[in-house]
Amino acid sequence: MGFLNKWFGRRQAQARQLDRCKTKLDSFMRPSMSLVDTRDMSIPERRQRYVRFVYGAIHALSEKYEMDETERLAVLVMFLKTTAQMHEREVSKLVADCTKETEGTGSQSTTGKGYEAMRQWLDGDAGAAVSRLGGALKA
């Protein structure tokens, strides 16, 4: 019985950690989205950039919350389905494209811009951080 309690306890702690990460991500992305023209999101290329930006931001959060690749993808899926209100089929395609992406995480890539923006936000520079999304989508 001790094994089951230990296993379920670990799973519950992991779920709480993913929820905390998603809550931080929501707090970061909401002001960012106010700077984005919603028509941009109807363009597949820009929608993919948005997902890469979000994934970069999640990567920065994953360092704080010590998350692995699977957990980062879980947060991305949760975010896209709930906060971004994307349909499951679209989420699956975008996440698959994101994992295949060879763009890299350098500071000039969209993923890198998301990473750097989240790092700034975590360091208390919210204004500079949220303005990066609009620039990343237009790049």
| Morphology call | globular
Q: Secondary-structure element order, as H and E?
A: HHHHHHH
Count of distinct strands: 0
What's the helical proportion of residues? over 70%
- Tally of individual domains: 1
Largest sheet data: none
**Radius of gyration, in angstroms, nearest whole number:** 15 Å
Q: Which structural class do you get from the secondary structure elements?
A: mainly alpha
Uncertain residue segments: none
Which range does the strand content fall in? Answer: under 5%
Overview of the molecule:
This protein is mostly helical and 139 residues long. The chain has one domain (2-138). Helices cover 76% and strands 0% of the residues. The chain has helices spanning 2-33, 44-65, 69-82, 88-100, 110-122, 126-130, 132-138. The chain is globular, with a radius of gyration of 15 Å. The N and C termini lie far apart (55 Å).
Keywords:
single chain; 139 residues; mainly alpha
In a nutshell, what does this entry contain?
This protein has helices at 2-33, 44-65, 69-82, 88-100, 110-122, 126-130, 132-138.
Annotate the secondary structure layout.
Layout: H1 2-33, H2 44-65, H3 69-82, H4 88-100, H5 110-122, H6 126-130, H7 132-138
